Amino acid sequence: MADIDFTKLPAFHSPAEILAHPRFSLARDEFVKAMLALYEHKPFLNRLLLEASRTVLVSTIMCVHARYDEADRATWPTLRLVSDSMTEHRLASASRVQDLVSRFVKTGYLEQRAAPRDRRVRLLTPTKKMIAQDQDFLVSHHLPLQIMFPDPGYALIMTRDPAFQLKQRLVSRDLFALGAKILASNPIMMLFQGRDAGVMILIKMIAMSKAQGGAAPLKVSYSDLGGRFGVSRTHVRKLLVAAEKMKLVRLTKAGGQFVELLPPVLQAFDRLVADAMSGFDLCYQLALRAVK
Hints:
Largest sheet: 3 strands, antiparallel
Strand content: 5-15%
Structural class: mainly alpha
Shape: globular
Distance between the termini: 15 Å
Order of helices and strands: HHHHHHEEHHHHHHEHHEEH
Number of helices: 15
Number of strands: 5
CATH class of the largest domain: Mainly Alpha
């Protein structure tokens, strides 16, 4: 596949347009529900995936897999190619990628096979397990777009079309720099994305706040929050203490542990959602153009 011509992009929805959409709040809330449905009370999956470097690694592997051309050695999905691709996100070192790939192999998400044209080279191949996980991820991240822009909508992702999934991952490879830019442009959210289950802990607190009308501080249990996502209460406490130092939350202990989500973290979350949705929309439109 030729690289994307960024001077001839298809029409797609900008972050500003998404944030200003009258159904954005509803779409964001449904995204929060979808993410909790995907990860809450699934400690094994959380330990395996819920850190930015791990979730990006799954996407990277799928993108590299989609681009594989046996006749072109430069596209062979080796550990080296995956590691080099991950450096664009600045989320994991080569040794970290190697460790994570090893875990994916041991847990049945990846297979290592000898290259047909050079048996000395080991190729990484996603299993049905990883492909299904990637489909779940894509559906949850297109749900807000489907809610805001149902006509013509995003049916090819929402119905988990496997051929379109590969096509979207194929074009996504040329947008790695955009993904890295989105992450780097939101340092507030990087605090949560850089910690195991950090984003999901924030998402759970946003859901709790929504459930009680967003008016009062949340009464939380660090042990309960940690247990929902496979991390310790100490991990949760350290995350929230760090967030308080950045003036993102306010912690109080009168009669129990209370957390107040402050406007900067809520605004940062909305911006990240809008940025990500815009990026996913661009990927979808590029893939759609490629299959026409």
